[in-house]
């Protein structure tokens, strides 16, 4: 028998087939379009993502030489916070998905904070009010379109992060797991249920929301390309990395260097309130067990800065070339890069911040900008690590790492 995993990420979707020894048998992956209609706006076509999901599952199974009936189960991991509304009857998306990096809700977030500021809901949700999270994105969609607001109020729409969308298409169930729910600004960390107060403050109808279930346990049965296969686990991508890196003991941490950069520290079965600008979040929950919480430091732009060098500045033609370019110079040459394309996340939480390259002189060249880009990831990681030590009181002796950027030696 085999197990499968759907990884619905920010830039691509892939399916992995693993055998009983834990070896990867086959992988297939497809990128999807990054839609940027205005500065600071980032969207995805959910229909394209679902079509890609079906394609990569079929292709990976074909590469492995097996069919779906040989899968003992499938797990799902996904880009978190990315927000979608779809029709409750037809299942058709009513708007492009608004991606976690999107900053269009910056003014709304300031208004929601009111006199209490960004920490208005932190005691309930563990999160500051920020453009990063899903709840304000839902409110923005309803505010922008009166017809959508009416349909939402009458129960005609469904909301979900991308795990919910994939689960809906696979199983017909409207569910999400505790890790993804904890990224909406709408869930009570203590009860693991939707918070009436948060729903009222942000202005999201409860009828839109999926059922919250544990991360690990049979969630539904697949149809179509995964007909009859148990869907046995769902975790947001960073929590899935925490789980996959076996950070099961309080004090163990991991950092994922992907599109963004996300460090999570297992804090056990007690949620730890942050005083250093970190997020308190659900790490994972196994069915019939208490939830395990984590502190998280979220950095919006890490590998995405390398993509920017490639796609926007055209300094490189492929991401791995950044290392050769960065090592073509002895140091950064006085150049510093603040990649605040989506504002600054932890520990600063400045939605109004924007990217900057400073220290440029006639001496600076492409290599200095490439080096400053890689060093920016290190500087942001250090900020988060210092905050994590201060909040947790744990002096980390080891940090488990993963993600595409770990292939870069610098």
Structural summary, described in words:
The chain is α+β, with helices and mostly antiparallel strands. 30% of the residues lie in helices and 25% in strands. The protein has a six-stranded mixed beta sheet. Strands 17-18-16-15-21 form a five-stranded mixed beta sheet. β1 and β2 (12-18) form a beta hairpin.
Task: Please render the helix and strand layout as text.
Elements: E1 2-8, E2 12-18, E3 24-31, E4 43-44, H1 46-64, E5 71-78, E6 84-87, E7 97-98, H2 106-113, H3 122-125, H4 134-144, H5 146-153, E8 157-160, H6 162-171, E9 175-177, H7 178-181, E10 187-188, E11 193-194, H8 196-202, E12 211-213, E13 216-221, E14 230-236, H9 237-244, E15 253-257, E16 261-268, E17 279-284, E18 292-299, H10 303-311, H11 321-326, E19 336-338, E20 356-358, H12 366-392, E21 400-402
List segments where confidence is low: pLDDT < 50 over at least 5 consecutive residues.
none
What gross morphology would you assign? globular
Main pleated sheet: 6 strands, mixed
Helix percentage: 25-40%
Return the structural class. Answer: alpha+beta
| Percentage beta strand | 15-25%
Q: What is the C-alpha radius of gyration, as a whole number of Å?
A: 21 Å
Strand order of the largest sheet: 3-2-1-5-14-13
First-last Cα distance: 40 Å
Tally of helical runs: 12
- Number of beta-strand segments: 21
Q: Which whole number gives the mean pLDDT?
A: 92
């Amino acid at each position: 028998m085999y197990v499968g995993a759907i990884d619905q990420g920010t830039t691509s979707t892939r399916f992995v087939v693993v055998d009983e020894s834990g070896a990867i048998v086959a992988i297939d992956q497809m990128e999807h379009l990054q839609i940027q209609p205005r500065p600071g706006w980032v969207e995805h076509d959910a229909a394209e993502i679902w079509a890609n999901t079906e394609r990569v599952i079929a292709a990976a199974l074909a590469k492995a030489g097996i069919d779906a009936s040989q899968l003992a189960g499938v797990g799902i991991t996904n880009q978190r916070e990315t927000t979608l509304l779809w029709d409750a009857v037809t299942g058709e998306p009513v708007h492009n998905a608004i991606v976690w990096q999107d900053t269009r809700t910056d003014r709304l977030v300031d208004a929601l904070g009111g006199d209490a500021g960004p920490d208005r809901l932190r005691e309930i949700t563990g999160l500051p009010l920020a453009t990063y999270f899903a709840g304000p994105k839902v409110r923005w969609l309803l505010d922008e379109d009166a017809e959508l607001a009416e349909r939402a109020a009458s129960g005609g729409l469904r909301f979900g992060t991308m795990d919910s969308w994939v689960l809906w298409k696979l199983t017909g169930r409207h569910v999400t797991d505790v890790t993804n729910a904890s990224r909406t600004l709408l869930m009570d960390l203590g009860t693991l249920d939707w918070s009436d107060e948060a729903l009222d403050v942000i202005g999201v109808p409860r009828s839109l929301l999926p059922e919250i279930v544990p991360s690990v346990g049979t969630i539904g049965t697949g149809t179509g390309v995964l007909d009859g296969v148990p869907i046995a686990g769902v975790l947001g991508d960073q929590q899935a990395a925490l789980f996959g890196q076996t950070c099961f003991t309080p004090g163990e941490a991991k950092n994922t260097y992907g599109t963004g950069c996300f460090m999570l520290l297992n804090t056990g079965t007690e949620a730890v309130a942050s005083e250093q600008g970190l997020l308190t979040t659900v790490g994972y929950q196994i069915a019939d067990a208490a939830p395990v919480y984590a502190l998280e430091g979220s950095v919006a732009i890490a590998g995405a800065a390398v993509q920017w060098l490639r796609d926007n500045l055209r300094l490189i033609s492929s991401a791995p070339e950044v290392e050769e370019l960065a090592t073509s110079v002895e140091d950064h040459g006085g150049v510093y890069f603040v990649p605040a394309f989506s504002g600054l996340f932890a520990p600063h939480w400045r939605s109004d911040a924007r990217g900057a390259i400073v220290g440029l002189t006639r001496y600076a060249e492409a290599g200095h900008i490439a080096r400053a880009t890689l060093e920016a990831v290190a500087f942001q990681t250090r900020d988060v690590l210092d905050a994590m030590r201060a909040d947790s009181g744990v002096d980390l002796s080891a940090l488990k790492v993963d993600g595409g950027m770990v292939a870069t030696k610098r």
